[in-house]
Amino acid sequence: MGGVARRATKIADEIKEGRPVLVLDAGNSLTGDREPASSSAGATSVEAMNLLGYDAMALGSTDIALGREVLRQRIAEARFPILSANAIDRETGELFAKPFVVLEIGGHRVAIVGVSGQSDARWITIRDPLAAARESVESVRPRADEIIVLSSAGAAVDQQIADAVPGITVIVGGGAGASAKPWVSNRTGAPIFHADEGSAGHAGRILGIGRLELDEIGSLAGYAWRQVPLGPEVKDDSAMAAWVKSKTGG
């Protein structure tokens, strides 16, 4: 299941170091071409993410392709918020998911904004991600010390957002445009961390680990980011390996 047991090991390693940890996903992670995620319509993916302790996820186009009712069920099952500031249900004319959430972590109020990329699904309309990101960041800024944007819109759109929207601490990107190095806006200084993009048979094989250094007033003073391949050199977490076996029979 895309290195779930190895992902659990690396997340546990970060937690053991004693720093506050956020586990985030930029979207397109509920289903794909692998079992059992495909046959369960993403239910096993949500179950795995619950066990891994995810804090938030953005809606991506393949998540939206599950359909309105199935996606509502997945959101209800998740023990973490699934976010989108620009996915509008055509039936109601309202946002389908929460646009953002504010979490208390390490003595800081961290806002997490979700932005979705374009979708062919007929039941939903995807608003301009740049406009949606700007509105959400402006709305949540008075309530947050740091703002993280989760975006499945792809690197080109994420760069536009980073350049045009001040106040973003970091963008965690998904979709097209994964990079071994962070892209940094020369206008706002916001970095983009984009670890992986899904491809047939290979989604979830890379974990991105970003570390943010904040000054005494909560401003970004520095950061480090790296891609971590989840190959056989990473030991499986035994509990997650047992869970995977129970779901796949292998």
How does the SSE layout of this entry go?
Elements: H1 4-16, E1 24-25, H2 43-52, E2 56-58, H3 61-64, H4 68-77, E3 82-83, E4 87-89, E5 100-105, E6 108-115, E7 124-126, H5 129-140, E8 146-151, H6 155-164, E9 170-173, E10 183-184, E11 191-193, E12 206-214, E13 220-229, H7 238-248
Parallel strand pairs: 1-2, 2-3, 6-8, 8-9, 9-11
Antiparallel strand pairs: 4-7, 5-6, 10-11, 12-13
Helix pairs in contact: 1-7, 5-6
Overview of the molecule:
The chain is α/β, with parallel strands linked by helices and 250 residues long. The chain has a single domain, classed as Purple Acid Phosphatase, chain A, domain 2. It is 28% helix and 24% strand. It is built from 7 helices and 13 strands. The strands form 4 sheets. A 6-stranded mixed sheet has the order 5-6-8-9-11-10, with helices on one face. The protein has a 3-stranded parallel sheet with strand order 1-2-3, with no helix packed on it. Strand 5 and strand 6 form a beta hairpin. Helix 5 crosses helix 6. 40% of the residues are buried. The mean pLDDT is 92.
